[in-house]
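Dig into what follows:
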Amino acid sequence: MKKVFTGLLLTSMFFVAFPADAATTQIKIDDVIVKSDTAPEQRSNRIMVPLRVISENLGAQVHWKDSQITLAMNKTLIVLNLNNKTVMKNDKTEQLDVQPYMKNNRTYVPIRFIAETFGSQVQYNQGTVSITSEPLLLDNKKIKALRYEYQMTMGGVIQDIKGNAYHKALYQVFQQKGNKVEAPKEYSWQINLDIPGSYSKRGQYRFMSDDTNTVKQFDIYSLNTAFPDELLQGHPHHLLHDVFEDSWYIFTDQAVQSIKQLINNAATNGFSTIISNTVA
């Protein structure tokens, strides 16, 4: 049976060999306290965390097959095995201080080795493990937050997504745009039920720098489908608007769902903050 987890992985997480009880350890990544329904554990003076926590919060891909776990990010590949201290790192064999294991149907892995291998700054101070990962750079500016906004019939919500790995993963999805197209004749936040082929804005995404200036902005629009199919032929279901370039592209449903999943993961794990909520 093969299970594959692709996605976010937050560059380098929790760490290390500390005398404190792992159950009381607080994890911070890029100044955000990580939420998890399962606390880290301590084995042989090393901090162990569930694989799911890594798969949702690290900038790598995680593949789990039988008892073998593969972590990949950039050009680095790690292969771990349950109940085995031998690990492969870029085709070179090394020995872990503690072996990965299964508990309560969850796979636990040693964070120190993963953090050091994928390269991040890690500090420990009074029960808090703080990890600082490399930020996303756009136009030579460090991205501090992704400001996501969506509107509903009776108001809207604005939230900031923190975490460098989330920024990188989301930006990568926006780069998966399709063919360039002309701007639709009718598009806005509101659903227009009078014009076939009109589009409504599904969400607005602004990559913001440390000085809170918007460096890049992408808007996703969806086709209003409250019309007979014959009137909608030739109209892509989703469009991506690169606002700074004022260019329009076909966008796939898979890309839209990937963005939705990443934002949901960010909210679940504590990386999303509501700035404004005017929904009645």
Observations:
- The longest helix spans residues 253-268.
